[in-house]
Amino acid sequence: MATEERKQELIKGLYDSVVNMDEDTARELSQAVLDEGIDAYEAVTQGLTVAMDRVGELYANFEYFVPQLLLCADALYAGLQVLRPHVRLGERGAARQIVIGTVEGDIHDIGKNLVKIMFEAAGWIVHDLGRDVQLQRFVEEQKRTQSEVVALSALMTTSMMAMPRVIEMIKAENPAVAIMVGGAPLSRDIARSYGADGYADNAGEAVREAVRMLDELKNK
Amino acid sequence: MKTDRMTSAERMDALLKGKPVDRVSFFSFALGFCAKNVGYPVATIYSDPEKSFRAQQWTKEQYGYDSDPFYGYASYGGWEFGGEVNLPDGEYEQAPSHGRFAVETEGDIERLALPDVKTAGMLPLARQFSRIQDEMGLSPSVVVGGPFTIAGNICAVETLCRWLIKKPELANRLLRLATDHILDVAQHWVDAFGKGRVIIQIWEPLAANQIISPQQFEKFVLPFQAELHQKILAMDIKYILCHICGEQNRNLPYWAQVPMGNPGIISIGKEVDITTAIEYFGKTCIIAGNIEPALIQTGTPQQIYELCRRAIDKGKQAPRGYALMQGCEIPVNTPPYNLYTMRRAIDDFGWYE
Which of B9, B22, B173, B311 is deepest in the core (most CB within 10 A)? Predict the structure, then answer.
C-alpha cells in the first residue's frame, strides 16, 4: 500500500501530465496508481479533473489555445482509459448527465468536442450526438437518458437559426431541462432571445455555466 | 437622400487608385443569400457559375453594392487535394462542407501531391465563373483560403492543431503544399486572363485566435502567408483582398508584416475594431468590414443602422479608404430589410464632403 506522500506525488504527477500535455506520463502514472493500490476515484477527481479545470482556465485566459487544449485532453483520456474501469460505482454518487451536439446543417464540431472534454473531465456522463444532428434527435436523447442539461453548438449563422426551434421542442417535452448554447456567432443576448437557459463563451466556462443553470432552475 | 455622383465601377476604380470618391463604398459578402433572393436553391451559387453570377449581379443591383460577384467558399482546398465536399442542401445550411478529408493519417501526407489546377475540385467551375466575369467586362477573381486554412481543410483542423505541437514537420509539409497550390492557382488565373487584371481573394478563418495562439501564428502562418503574398504580388495581379476572419486581434502585429499590395484590401470580422484595423493597415490598405452577420440576421433594423453608422464614422478616417461590408458571409435567411439598412446607413452617413 502506498504512503500518503506517494499518493500525493502520483496525483500531482497526473495533474502535471495533463497540464503539460504529456499523454505517456499520464498513462504510466495512472497504471502506477492501480499497481500501488491507490484509489482510482481519488486519482481521477484530484489529479485529472482538477488539471482539466486548470486547462480550462488557461484556455479562457488565452494562455492555452485549441492545440494545447486538444493535447491536454489526449493526456486526460489516456489516464481515464486506465483508471475509469477501476472507479467503484456508488463512490461518485449519481453523475450528472448532458446531451450535446452540433445542430442540424452544421458540420463544425471542434467547439462541441472541446466542451464535451470539459464535461467528461468534470465527471459528467456525456451523450454526444455528434454533428449535423437532426433536431428531433436532441428531444429523443434527452428523454431517453433523462439528462438534466442539453448543450447545443453552431458555428454558422444560418444553422444557429435551428436553435430556437430545438429549444422549443425540448422544452415542450420537458420544461425542466436546462439548455445551453454556444458557438462563434452566438452571444448571451442571442442565447436569451432563443429561450436558452445558459450560454458559454468558451469551453473553459461551459461546466460552470451548466452548474449555474441547474442551481438557478432548482431555485425557481 | 443624396444622389451618387459616381457609378459603382467609377467608385471602385477611384478607390483602388487612391483618388477621391463621393461616398463610402458598399462591399458584398453574400453568396447563398443571393441564390435565395432570386429564387434559386442555395447550392446553385456553387454548382452553376452562370446562375451564381446572375443571382449575385441581380442582388448587387437591388442593394447597390459596389463590389462585383465572386465565386468561392471557406472549405476550399479539401476537394482539390482529394477529399470530398457536400453542397448545402438542408434548411439550415449555407455553404459547402467537408464530407471526407484528403488526409486522415500521417501516411496519407506522403501520397499527397499538388493538384492539377486545370481539373481539380471546384477550379473548373471557378474558371467558368471568371470567364463570365471577363465577358461582362469585370476583373476575373479567384477565392482561395490562406495556407493555414487550406492545410486545415486537407486534414481537419483538429489534426493540424495536434501536429503543430507534436509533429511540426507534418504541419509544415501541408503548409508548403497549400502555399504552392495557391501560387499555382494564381499563376493559372494570370495566364488565362492576363497580367494586371486578376483579383485574388484570400480568406483565412482557421488561423484565428479562437483556434491558434499568436505564437503559433508567428511560427506557422506568417512565413507562408508572407511568402504567398510576396509571390502573388510579383505576378502582377490587380489586387489582393485578404479576409482575416474571426478573432484575429492578437495576430494583427503579424498580419501587418504580410505584404498586401498598395493598395490591398483588408476585410475584417466583427471581432476586430475598425480603428484598430486602420492603425495596422490603413497606410496601404483599404479597410472593409465589420458588420456582424449574426446581428444582420437576428437584430432590428435600428440596431444594424446604428452599428453601420458607427462603423462608417470610424471607417471614414481610413487614409486609403473604407468599404462598409459584412464581417463574414451573411446568412441565407437574412431579413432583406436588414441588408437594405446597411445601404441606407451609407446614404445617410457615408458622404465624404
Answer: B311
Residues of A in contact with B149 (CB under 8 A): none
Residues of A in contact with B330 (CB under 8 A): 157
Can you give the pTM of this predicted structure?
0.93
Give the E-state strand segments of B18-161 in sequence order: 25-26, 84-86, 97-100, 141-145
What residues pair up with B188 in beta bridges, in sequence order? none
- CB contacts of B213 in chain A (<8 Å) are 62, 64-65, 67-68
Question: What's the CA gap between B56 and B48, in Å, rounded?
Answer: 12
What type of residue is B123? L
| Average pLDDT of span A88-116 | 85
Q: Across the interface, which of A21, A67, A106 has its CB nearest the CB of B212? A: A67
Backbone conformation region of residue A146, classed left if phi is above 0, alpha if psi is from -120 to 50, else beta: left
Residue A92 inside a domain? The answer is: no
Residue carrying C-alpha cell 486526460: A76
Binning pLDDT at 50, 70 and 90, where does residue A92 land?
low
Residue from the list B97, B293, B329 with its beta carbon closest to the beta carbon of A107: B97
- Say if the Cβ atoms of A65 and B213 lie within 8 Å: yes
- Residues B273, A46: Cα–Cα separation, whole Å: 42
| Residue B86 pLDDT exceeds 90 | yes
Q: How many CB atoms lie within 10 A of CB B270?
A: 21
Same domain for A149 and A177, yes or no, is yes
Q: How high is the pLDDT of residue B252? A: 98
Q: What is the CATH number of the domain that holds A185?
A: 3.40.50.280
A108 and A41, same domain (yes or no): no
Q: In this predicted structure, what is the pLDDT of residue A184?
A: 87
Whether residue B92 and residue A106 make contact (CB cut-off 8 A), yes or no, is: yes
Which is it for strands B97-100 and B84-86: parallel, antiparallel or unpaired?
A: antiparallel
Q: Which domain holds residue A81?
A: 4-86
Cβ neighbours of residue B333 under 8 Å, at least 6 residues apart?
A158, A161, B36, B297
Count of structural domains within chain A: 2
Give the mean pLDDT of B24-36: 97
Please state the ipTM of this predicted complex. Answer: 0.94
Q: Which of A157, A188, A189 to mutate to test binding with chain B, by most B CBs within 10 Å of its CB?
A: A157
Query: What is the percent of chain B with per-residue pLDDT over 90, rounded to a whole number?
Result: 97
Angle at Cα B148 formed by Cα B147 and Cα B154, nearest 5°?
90
